[in-house]
Amino acid sequence: MAKHFLMAALLAAFYVIGFFSCKKNATESVVNLPEVVTANISEITLTAAQCGGTITSDGGAAVTARGVCWSTHPAPVISDNKTSDGTGSGSFTSHITGLTPHGHYFIKAYATNSAGTSYGDARAFTSLVASGTVTDIDGNIYQTLTIDNQEWMVENLKVTRYRNGDPIPNVADNGAWTSLSTGASCNYNNDANNVAVYGCLYNWYTVNDSRQIAPAGWHVATDAEWQTLVDYLGGDSLAGGKMKTIGTIEAGNGLWKQPNIGATNESGFSALPGGYRDDPVGAFHKMSYDAWWWTSSVFSAYTAWARGVDYGSLAVTRTSLASKRYGGNVRCVRD
């Protein structure tokens, strides 16, 4: 009898211990690594860039550190260069500094909780190339930038004389503008205050004049040179965003109208919406909405190739329908 009683007591004890052990295990939660997505890279300059990420899951424990890490090797970790951008889930922005001009970098977002550190996908980028300046015959100084082995002006031309010193006529009258078959320039809305920011508008006859409007050692970019630039920046459907300056008029931090889709200016090209002047009546159009540049490449007796970007698209538009009497901006490339 005592033996049976002892056995029953032991079984009861094992049951109680097992019950509470199972209950404890049932209430304990397993902590996993966080899940994080690396953001697109933007605002790339000679020595800095912007990135960030989004933490889509904290893994069951508080995120105690987050940011991005980067290196010149393809698999950066937090023991390499890193930013520290707060705690918790959600999105964050990271400002990267201390880069080397024309350096090739790999970057990942990271997030840390009690289970450890996890990483987003690696993204690659190249910091901009330091170039210099060029001065036109009027003494205007333009910043320049090397993009994929081409050195571009990163400002629109504003010169008022050909390279040999001859003046480029400034034609304000609409009727006179639309009857031209020789070189001429104008200021948008005939307002000289627009030149400092947007440059001058030129008809294509100016671009094609043998006296040349580009500074010595430079030339107006050809259609083929434009295509090299566009292809390097991701092709016709994407390159415009990488060329446009960021910000909008409505937000008080830019010159483009909303929404200025996809603008990152990561190329450093710094496209501004200078608009254009038409042929039919000589009217001005689309400042704050569009940027248009002549190429030096002819298409027909009446038209030439031009390139444009606008506030509502990531794309770069290529057109052969631009009348040679249109007024467009000009960008030059080193010979």
What does this structure look like?
The chain has 335 residues and is of the alpha+beta class. The protein folds into two domains: 35-126, Immunoglobulin-like (Sandwich), CATH 2.60.40; 129-334, no CATH class. It has six helices and 20 strands. Strands 3, 4, 6, 7 and 8 form a five-stranded antiparallel β-sheet that branches. A three-stranded antiparallel β-sheet has the order 1-2-5, with no helix packed on it. Strand 15 and strand 16 form a beta hairpin. The protein is elongated.
Descriptive tags:
single chain; 335 residues; alpha+beta; Immunoglobulin-like; 2 domains; five-stranded antiparallel sheet; three-stranded antiparallel sheet; 31% strand
The averaged pLDDT comes out at 91
Poorly predicted residue ranges: 1-17, 19-27
Global shape: elongated
Quote the beta fraction: 25-35%
Give the total of domains.
2
Q: From N to C, what is the helix and strand string? A: HEEEEEEEEEEEHEHEHEHHEEEEEE
What is the subunit organization of this protein? single chain
* Radius of gyration, whole Å: 30 Å
Number of helices: 6
Separation, N- and C-terminal Cα atoms: 109 Å
Helical content class: 10-25%
Main pleated sheet: 5 strands, antiparallel
Counting helices, strands and paired strands, the structural category is alpha+beta
In total, the number of strands is 20
Please outline what is shown here.
With 335 residues, this protein is an alpha+beta fold. The chain has helices at 2-27, 174-178, 195-198, 204-207, 223-232, 239-243, and strands spanning 35-38, 49-57, 65-71, 81-82, 90-96, 104-113, 116-119, 123-126, 129-135, 141-147, 150-153, 185-186, 201-202, 218-220, 276-277, 284-285, 290-298, 303-310, 317-323, 332-334. It folds into two domains: 35-126, Immunoglobulin-like, CATH 2.60.40; 129-334, no CATH class.
